Structures are given as structure tokens and as C-alpha cells.
Amino acid sequence: MSLLMKSLASSAPPPPPPRFSPRTASTPPCETAPSHARSHSRAMTALAKLLPLLAPDDDWSLALDHLASAHGITTDVELLFSPPLPPHQLLPPATLDRLQSLVWGYLSAPSTSGTYLLEQSRSRKGKQPQRYSTSLEDLDVLLDGGFSAGEVVELCGPRRSGRTVLALFVVLLHLLLHADKRAAWLDTTGSFDPHRCLAILRDVLIPRLHALGGSFASEDGKEPAAEELAIAVLDRLAVSRVTKSGDALDTLTAEAGSREKSETLSMVVVDTLDTLVGGDALSNESAQENANLVAFMRRLSTLARSVHLPLTVFVITSAIPVAASTTSRAPAPAAVTAQPPPLSSLPLPQPLKPSLGPTFAYLVDLSLLLTPAEPLFGPVDGKDRTVLEVTRNARGDKGATVVFKLERGVNLEQLE
């Protein structure tokens, strides 16, 4: 638990995490069961860490020392995007070719035989995937029970659209309902607010579940105070301040492999991904930054799809207004490349585009766009309202919308 989180707790140790049990058959609508190199400090994976895993019987120390000291190359993406390297006795052409071949193989998308996929499909037949509530009843229905374990979900939108609050609601509700689960929050901007988390749990989620007939009573039948219960839940949320993508993956790997905690890691949030991978450079079509992003997302997806520990991973990204010149109704000159279609199907006065580029959505399983409702409904009817739109869904339909309101930054409630 972070120091910020500890500031919420008293000096006494937190009580054992209570378990939620519905008192009635009416349960809440929640859960269904590398000069080029030195400027890029966000490179994906250190070669010194990667190569012993890819070729454990080979000694790469001399070659890696030469790459780092002579060329500033220390990571996988830097090696692949470096200019042609002159031969050296510590790095013969054959060794360099083998290095690059190993790294290309690691970063390339893996192939799978059709027979294997068929066997997987047959083994899953009749099994309901584990789903976690979105905290919005209609969205749970649209997603056939909610978010799925093993998938990467994008929460995209402009600032102040409710992306972070929605992620908090999903994670905190999940931890509240499952005392044997824990979550990891990778904070890339230093904006995580534990006091907001406390308010969401104490003032919104716990009373809401009590109103539905739920109980968090211990074996002696005593119902814990809302703040006491909230602090116990927050003790299972690990918050890490990360500024580099490699550090983020290392932190997540360590959390997933931790044997010191009895609870199982089940949810991860990256807030925000733009800061971590360089949204500005990506929007300017930087080839190396795009390679960094793809490599990061592939490793993140691999972690999420672990057979032994599938995770639901949320990445928060930004949507930015399309430049006015690109929204003109006048025909574009022939030399100008056509713009991608708008991110949203909604009739927004100023269309939005994803800050990480139009192809990012294909790196995730599910993409949800959150848009403030004021441009659509006016300053009165749209105040404190957000329209959530399913813009990509690898396992179902897209295009559906859900509207919710957000009061005081802590009370999120679906609207009919």
C-alpha cells in the first residue's frame, strides 16, 4: 500500500477483509461469475534482461557492453531501429544478425495453427467466461455480463470526461465484492487521489449495495462501519508511480508474480497511457514511438491473457479535437491525405480523434469512448453528463451508447 493510501488508515492494522453476501435473491447488477537512442528513455525492454530469456545458454555480455558504450543501444526497439552498425570484434556480423533475429522474433506477432485454435474453441464450449461488472447496468448487458478476464480495455475520451472515475468505480466495486482479489493502479501523472477512492467507497458504493440488501457482516454478525470497510478494501489496491513503459511492465510482472499476498491480482489500470508512451510523438507519426507502443501493448496483452492468472487491464487514453482545417466541408486538395473517419458516430460539433493514432484501437479488445454531453445536449441538460459509446468490441457489437451522470467527482450513476 502506498504512503498516500496509508494516510487514510489509522495506526491500527486494518481488519480482515469482509466478504459481501447478498441477503436476498435480488443481487446487484455487478458480476457474473536506442542520439536515436538516448532521447528515447521509454524504450521497451532492456536487452540485458531480454536476451538471457531468449537464449539462456549464450553469453551476450561483451556484445551488450559494446552496443551500449559505442552506440547507446540498450533495449530491443533501439536495436531494431538503429542505423547500420559497423563491424567490430566484439560484435561480428553473425552475432548482430542473431541478436536482431531473436528480438524480431520476440516482438513479432505470434502465429497459431488452426488446429490449435479449434481445440481451444472446443475446450471453451459451454463455459461462461469470467466477467466483471462495469458498474453500469446497461453496459453490463451490452457486454454480455461486463468486462472479461484476459482482455485489454481502452477508456478513451477528452479531459474531464469521467474516464478515471469510471475506472475507479469498476476496480473498487470489484474489490468490494471480492475479498480474495486485489488490483494494481499504474499512475503515470501523479494524479491518483486516495481520498476520492475513500469517498467513492464510503459514500456511494457501500451504501448502494446495502440498499440492495447486501451485507458485509463478519462471522459474528457485526456489520463493519463504512469507512472501516472502505479502508480494508483500499489495502488491496496497489498504487505505483511509473514514468517509463519498461518500469510499468516490470511493476506489473512483479505484482502478478507476488507470493507475499494471499489475494489474487485480477485488475490493472494504466492512467494514462498517453503519458507513458509519448502521445505527442505518436500523433506526429513517429515510427519509433509507434514501435514502442506496439511492443508495449503486445507485452501487456500477453500478461493479461496469462493462462494461470488472466487479468482485466484498463488503459486510459485521450481523445483530442480534430484541427478545424480538417473539418472543413470544402473538398480537400488532391495532395492532402484523407483524414481517418471520426472516432465517434455521435453528431459532435467538433469531431474527436485518438491521441495515440487511429490504429491503436486494434491493439485492444474493447474500446469505450467517453464524451461530455454538453456539446450534444446543451449546458443545462448536458451538465455533469457523459455519453459512453462502444467504438470497438472484439467479442460483439459496437456503436451502442450509455449515458451516466457524475456528481462531485465521486457519484457516478447511470441515466435511463
From TrEMBL:
Q: Which key words are in the record?
A: Nucleus
UniProt GO BP: DNA strand invasion; double-strand break repair via homologous recombination; reciprocal meiotic recombination; telomere maintenance
Query: Which GO CC annotations does the UniProt entry carry?
Result: microtubule organizing center; Rad51B-Rad51C-Rad51D-XRCC2 complex; replication fork
Q: Which Gene3D superfamilies match?
A: P-loop containing nucleotide triphosphate hydrolases
Query: What PANTHER family would the database entry show?
Result: DNA REPAIR PROTEIN RAD51 HOMOLOG 4
Q: Where in the cell is it found?
A: Nucleus
GO MF annotation: an example: four-way junction DNA binding
Q: One Pfam family, short name please?
A: Rad51
Residue ranges of domain RecA family profile in the record: 128-318
Identify the InterPro entries for this entry: HRR_RAD51_Paralog, P-loop_NTPase, Rad51_C, RecA_ATP-bd
Please list where the region (Disordered) is annotated.
1-39
Ranges in a coiled coil: none
**What protein name applies here?**
RecA family profile 1 domain-containing protein
From what organism does this protein derive?
A: Rhodotorula diobovata
